[in-house]
């Protein structure tokens, strides 16, 4: 199993970023996928979930209405579109296979700052 995130960077408050997570080594279309983030000094938190077929997406209140998770099973890729970014969204963002697996990507840094 291999997960590789990309798309992070520095963005001003109110800006947008789109993260990607390319998956390999397993049957991608059979698994739910999740995005998590970890800010300095804080625990890692779930920010988005998508079902295996992409028909169900769920978010915590902290990002609901601003973040959108999607997937392309033909490309073995899951995305996280982040809009209206805030400094509090600054973190390393990780994709994960499912909710509880040990399969994580290496993370991509997102910094929201003016």
Explain what this protein looks like in three dimensions.
The protein has 114 residues and is mainly β. Helix content is 0%, strand content 47%. The strands form two sheets. Strands 2-10-9-4-5-6 form a six-stranded mixed β-sheet, with no helix packed on it. A four-stranded antiparallel β-sheet has the order 1-3-8-7, with no helix packed on it. A hairpin with a 4-residue loop joins strand 7 and strand 8.
Topology at a glance:
Blueprint (H helix, E strand, L loop, with lengths): L1 E5 L2 E3 L5 E8 L8 E6 L6 E6 L6 E2 L8 E6 L4 E6 L8 E7 L10 E5 L2
Parallel strand pairs: 2-10
Antiparallel strand pairs: 1-3, 3-8, 4-5, 4-9, 5-6, 7-8, 9-10
Q: Overall mean pLDDT score?
A: 97
Percentage of residues in helical conformation = under 10%
* Secondary-structure element pattern, one letter each: EEEEEEEEEE
Number of strands: 10
What percentage of the residues does DSSP assign to strands (E)?
over 45%
Unreliable sequence segments: none
Major sheet characteristics = 6 strands, mixed
How would you sum up the global shape?
globular
Helical segment count: 0
- What oligomeric state do these chains adopt? single chain
Spatial strand sequence of the major β-sheet: 2-10-9-4-5-6
The assigned structural class equals mainly beta
Radius of gyration: 13 Å
End-to-end gap? 37 Å
